[in-house]
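User:
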Amino acid sequence: MLNSRSTNWRTILPLGLLLFQKVASAATVVSGNVSGTWTTNGSPYILSAGCTVASNQTLTILPGVEVIVGPDVMLRVNGGITAIGTPEKPITIRGASPTNYWYGIVAVYSGFTNRFHFCRMSEAGSQALQFYVSGGNTVMAVEILNCDFFNCRGGAIVGNAEGWETAHPSSGASTFYADIHNCVFDSTTYGCFFSAYSREYPGNAAAHPKITGNIFKNLAYEALTLYGDGTNVSRPIFRNNTVFNTAQGVSITGRNFEPLIENNLFMGNSNAIKRTVGESAGLGVSFNCFFGNMANFAGYPSIYGVPIQSNYNGDPCDAFFNIFLDPQFIDTNRFLLSNFSPCIDAGDPAIADVCPQFSHGSAISDIGAYGGPDACGWLTHGFTPVITSQPSYQSSCVGGSATFKVRVEGSEPLSYRWYFNGTTPLAGETNAQLNLLNLESSQAGLYSVKVSNTFGTITSAPAQLLVSDACVGIHLYAGLSITGMVGRTYNVEYVTNLAATNWTFVASNTFSQPQWLFIDTNTPFDAKKYFRVRLQP
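Assistant: Predicted structure:
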């Protein structure tokens, strides 16, 4: 059960009466056995020591709840856990600080389908989510949707299936299933690690994770690792993911893994796909895009990666329709494709795009996280802000004005805060546009803006403002020196095209002297003009 929630009482003595006022608690501290429902009324929940959800018990975490876990503390789930947030109210599970790492959530088979939706997990020291199923002819399933994993020192998700021989008390096969969609793995050690192996032969075990429509970026090791020696065949699916700047995209080590790896985008990785030769049977790698990787294939037949034909877009590809072209991202935060990306309509034609808000082109799947049937899952996923247009250099003068603008993409609502010379906040300036009026010379300097939402903060590049003592413009004007007869009248006319006949009157002068210097003050604003002078009757 939960430990008692601390309560502060304030004593008030008006008119000689003794009254008590309850002051809201700062947190709910828990340890030991936990179950029931965690609500925002008790948030944040602080796990001060190891916690366990007992067998036949469940823990439900409601939207908007924050869970802060002490250093090296584990939440063990022998029963079931459901943590389902919303886009507006994600569930946060984190360490006490960015350098205080908790252990992780460890769930063992109980027959319960554990679910995590719209959760933000950080500072896990081992792995944020760990799942284990062992023998007994058991099947374990988990569901992880629209979650973010970042600053996890040991990794994000582990799933392990073990098989035992008939003489063992836990004899029998075990099977692990996982649905992992529309998640972001950022700056963790690795993304997903799944294993299937036999404790003693013959011991049947298999892992069948379905990993689709995710973003893996800035990982120290693999986005996906498949490992083990299970005697049953494991058939993981890795489809429509974007993998950027990792040590390895997919690593396959062990027997009886036949993964399907298709429609993925691998960019800027050390090894995109690595397979231990002679161990893994599966070769299903097709309709992927590779660009800027140190190696695209390791442990695969040499036919992989050699362009020998054209795909449906007419771009060169290998025998398995893998392409090797710049995907042309709009940004490297969300990794949206530009309208000119070769990854558009370059996926498996048997897989349809169904989300025009993200997908481009025809109904054929785009390569990467925004193609295929799971692309619509991004509609409600939160993203940190991305600056798509930075503030630009401005120059003005004392008494003049200047305007700085920033253009941002990200999950609403977005908040803005402008700064002068990096550290001085500008009072009241909380919009995407900064207007400075009646400038003084002391306002010359650097201007930047911090943009924040529920999921993070980004700071723009500084833009310089120069303030001069006076504004001086240099312009070129058309000057006509006209010589004529005193007492006669002359008109000046112009056209912008010599073929035109509709001459426009500009000025008239009746000469009191034989020369007239006419200057057209509008010419700095005109692309071209042709003048004529006509003597009037």
